[in-house]
Amino acid sequence: SGTHVSDGGAGLPTVTAKADSAPTIKIPSSAPPGSLVVKTLIKGSGPPVAKGQEVVTQYVGVNWRTKVPFDSSWTRGAPFGFQIGATPAQIIAGWDKGLIGVPVGSRVLLVIPPKDGYGSTGQAQAGIKGTDTLVFVVDVLDAATGASG
Fold first, then answer.
1. Cα–Cα–Cα angle for 32, 38, 40, nearest 5°?
2. What is the C-alpha separation between 47 and 140, in angstroms, rounded?
3. How far is CA 50 from CA 74, 93, 123, 142, in A?
4. Are 80 and 100 a contacting pair, CB within 8 Å?
5. pLDDT surpassing 60 at residue 147
6. Which of 67, 65, 46, 61 is nearest to 110 (CA)?
7. How far apart are CA 92 and CA 116, in angstroms?
8. Are 61 and 75 in contact (CB under 8 A)?
9. Alpha-carbon torsion 125, 93, 3, 13, what sign?
10. 11 closest CA partner among 26, 38, 25, 32
11. How far apart are CA 50 and CA 57, in angstroms?
12. I need a surface site. Which of 11, 12, 63, 135 has the fewest CB within 10 A?
């Protein structure tokens, strides 16, 4: 839910989606950007995500080089939750950097260069090389501050 803002494009991947289904990401033939890109596709009306919160998301990840999805919470049938800004990190740096400040209820496009993804080692199990740019479409479903104690 939220206000539709963009479908990406203009040198960035184009995102299409039907309600209640995984978005489809079309990678352009151009070279990927060299730095982290955070593009709001749907702007939610909830509070902004803050460091230390438990965040619940649905996402699809595509490798820019292969143009093939390598991971999706949608295909697993369950949202993905994690603590943002945790030490040690629970997610790749591109998510930690890119999702802070995003309003709950939003869908964002993250274009993540290797240094903010899996680094020079890549992620062999997922077919990700150390030079691969990753593209995620992330739906921020909820964010809450956990009980301290």
1. 120
2. 11
3. 24, 15, 28, 11
4. no
5. no
6. 61
7. 7
8. no
9. negative
10. 32
11. 14
12. 11
Count CA within 13 A, CB hemisphere, residue 45. Answer: 4
* 122: DSSP letter: -
Give the DSSP H or E segment for 43: strand 37-43
d(CA 72, CA 79): 9
Cα-Cα-Cα-Cα torsion 86, 91, 93, 99, nearest 10 degrees, comes to -80
Q: pLDDT of 93-112, one tens digit each? A: 999 999 999 999 999 999 99
DSSP, collapsed to helix, strand or coil, labels residue 58 as strand
- For 2, the token pair is 């939220």
How many other CB atoms sit within 10 Å of the CB of residue 113?
A: 19
In the structure encoding, which two tokens stand for residue 78, read together? 């369950």
Kind of pairing between the strands at 14-16 and 69-72: unpaired
Residue scoring higher pLDDT (63 or 146): 63
In angstroms, the CA 99 to CA 30 distance is 25
Strands 69-72 and 24-26: unpaired
